[in-house]
Amino acid sequence: MTDRIEAAAAELRPLLQNFILWARENAPGSDSNLVGSVALWHRLIASDDVGRWKQSDLRTVLLDRMPQVVEDPDAAADGMVPAIRAYLTFLSESDRLAKGSASLGDLLAELDRLEDDFVDAMEDLVVEEDEDDEEYDEESEGLGDFEPFADELSELPTIRLRPDSELAAATRETTLIAKARDLAVWVGTERRVGETSLLDDAEIVEALAVLKLPVPEKGGASLADSVPALWNIWNLAIDLDFLQPEGEDTVSVDADTAEWPFEEDDDALDAWMAGLHSIDYGDPELEDEEATIALSGLTRALLLRVLLATGSKPLAELRTELAEAAAEYDDLGAEAWTAATAQYGDPLNPVLDWLAGYGMVEVEHDQVRLTPLGMEGVVHLVDDADIELDARPAIDAMTALDLLSFGAELPEEEADAEFAAWMELRAPEQAARDLLEAAAEDDADALIRVQAASMVGSLGDVAVPAWREALDEPSLRPYAATHLAQLGVEDAPTPTQADTHWLILDMLTISAGLGRPEFVSSLDDIGNVPNLVSLLEVIWKVPHPHLEELLEAIGKAHPDKQVGKAAKRALFKARSGQN
Fold first, then answer.
1. Residue 1 has pLDDT above 70, yes or no
2. Coil/strand/helix, residue 546
3. Which long-range contacts (CB under 8 A, 24 or more apart) does 510-518 make?
4. In the prediction, which pLDDT does 130 show?
5. Could you give the CA distance from residue 451 to residue 463 in angstroms, rounded to a whole number?
6. What stretch or stretches form a coiled coil here (predicted)?
């Protein structure tokens, strides 16, 4: 079924894009985003032809299917019927209402008859969702669960991340990693560990001295049970691969551990990321196991709330919010909070100590602030939870390749704003060189190449030196020759037929990634069947990285047999030429 849904969605995409454009002028009050699921399920369960609508189809889709698949019943109750009314009108006025359809008048009349029943069905779903939400709240996964905050996280303003060089420098200053290194080096090679306690009492005292941790006073508990800080650092050393288990009862220091802090930025950052989930070791550890469980996730909960406050939040507010959250999430939460207050002075003390030791937060004047390293870490944690977050490199740290990669995913206006901000910090001539050099890194990435050509093209005459240099790069020469000609540069080479063919293949590569309908549409834009056949007779000679797969795709996708045969002949010639 998934394949059928994907195929139907690809088939509908161009039609729905045309409808959105039409609706802006002709039905501005309708929510065109609500039409997609109706059109999709109409295609899947009611009609093989997306343009053929019968009165019975409306009941089948709106009353039988939509209550099962609609994502936002509240929005659907308010706007789906008006949106479908606009969509059917669009199909009729653009001659897309296919033969065999009911008349527009009959369809709209049937829609009016179904409207009350549809709204009732959506309102029933809203009530059910409210009940489910209440049940979900009662069964929340705990303090450290990010999912209940997914909507708030997705609405945060763009988060700007610092470059790897700065982050790596910060990792080298983290005291906890240094402690984990010292402990692992002390462990040495092939140290035997016990079954009930990893180290005996004498070894524990030695290890505490290495870590500059106090030896606890003798009490009712054993020494091993009284040094949770030691075992947290031991576990961190394992997370970092500083300590390696060897068999069931032996551990050894890794050969590279003593070299921390690592010289290479990538190595330093990789090590820090490997230990990121050690943040859970910052949760308070209490004498009562159930109380400890009640506060599990407290460290993540603090990080989440500081992130939602855009990176800085008063400690007093955090303390109040988290105490309330602990009481809400677990029946023992309030009692556990009181116990942690008695043991630590403040339940957040162990949390903040660990996070500060791992380089993620700073506390100054009772204000908790995420460091750049902490922001990087929290973004990774949110990503691990499969929650959308708009995080990008800081403008001053954004490479040309970063800009091109992010620009390809952004709406046009936002991409333009990102480009303008990036350009303000750079000399235009050098920026043009950087963009074209980034585009040349991977000759298989047509989208990045087109992005770069567009951005550099917008710089005008100042980019001429960069364009001249790009003439020596095979993947960029077609763009360079074309832009130099457009700028009227003297002694610039005239774009060749091969240059034009390369540009066509880049365009086809991008459209092929959008789906079959877009691909076929881009082929139609090139010309009629005779023009396409003529093109295929010569384009096989172009050494484009996607040539063979494009020729194969044309042979399968184009509805005209002449084009299909020409594509297969061209594919054979291309493969024979390579051999």
1. no
2. coil
3. 510/446, 510/447, 510/450, 512/546, 512/549, 512/550, 512/553, 513/447, 514/13, 515/9, 515/10, 515/13, 516/7, 516/10, 516/11, 516/557, 517/10, 517/11, 517/13, 517/14, 518/10, 518/13, 518/14
4. 66
5. 15
6. 104-131
Q: List beta partners, residue 250.
A: 192
Strands 159-161 and 391-393: parallel
Instruction: Indicate the SS3 state at residue 52.
Output: coil
Query: Which DSSP helix (H) or strand (E) runs through 43?
Result: helix 35-45
Question: What is the CB-side half-sphere exposure of residue 427 using CA atoms within 13 A?
Answer: 4
Concatenate the DSSP letters of all residues of 190-249 into one string: SEE--SS-SS-HHHHHHHHHHTT-PPPPP-SS-TGGG-HHHHHHHHHHHHTTSEEE-SSS
Angle at 54 between CA 53 and CA 57, to 5 degrees: 90
Element (H, E) at 367: strand 367-370
pLDDT at 120 over 50: yes
Which stretches of 240-314 are DSSP H helices? Answer: 265-274, 289-294, 298-308
pLDDT at 138: 41
Neighbouring residues of 151: CB distance < 8 A, sequence distance ≥ 6? none
CA 279 to chain centre: 22
CB 368 within 8 A of CB 318: yes
Residue 408, classified by CB atoms within 10 Å of its CB into exposed (0-12), middle (13-18) or buried (19+), is middle
The helix (H) or strand (E) run that includes residue 369 is strand 367-370
Does the pLDDT at position 301 exceed 80? yes
Q: Residue range 258-274: average pLDDT?
A: 96
354 CB-near residues (< 8 Å, 6+ apart)? 176, 232, 278, 279, 281, 282, 299
Task: Give 219-247 pLDDT, tens digit per residue.
Answer: 777 899 899 999 999 999 999 999 998 87
Beta bridge partners of 244: 252
Q: Which candidate, 442, 439, 436, places its Cα nearest to that of 466?
A: 436
3-state secondary structure at position 361:
strand
Answer yes or no: are the C-beta atoms of 333 and 295 closer than 8 Å: yes
Helix (H) or strand (E) holding 253: strand 250-253
Please give the backbone phi and psi of residue 314, each rounded to the nearest 5 degrees, phi first.
-60, 140
Q: Tell me the backbone φ, ψ of residue 408, rounded to 5 degrees.
A: -70, -20
Q: Is the dihedral of CA 234, 239, 242, 243 positive or negative?
A: positive
**Mean of pLDDT values over 514-518:** 86
Closest CA to 185 of 280, 137, 254: 254
- Taking CA atoms, 268 is separated from 87, 109, 169, 265, 504, in Å, by 55, 67, 8, 5, 44
Mean pLDDT of the residues in the chain: 91
**What is the model's pTM?**
0.66
Neighbours of 271 (CB within 10 A): 25
Q: Residue 135 — pLDDT band, cuts 50, 70, 90?
A: very low
Buried b (16+ CB within 10 A) or exposed e, 33-47: ebbbbbbbbbbbebb
State the residue for tokens 């060089």: 165
DSSP state letters, 139-164: T---TT--GGGHHHHHTSPPEEE--H
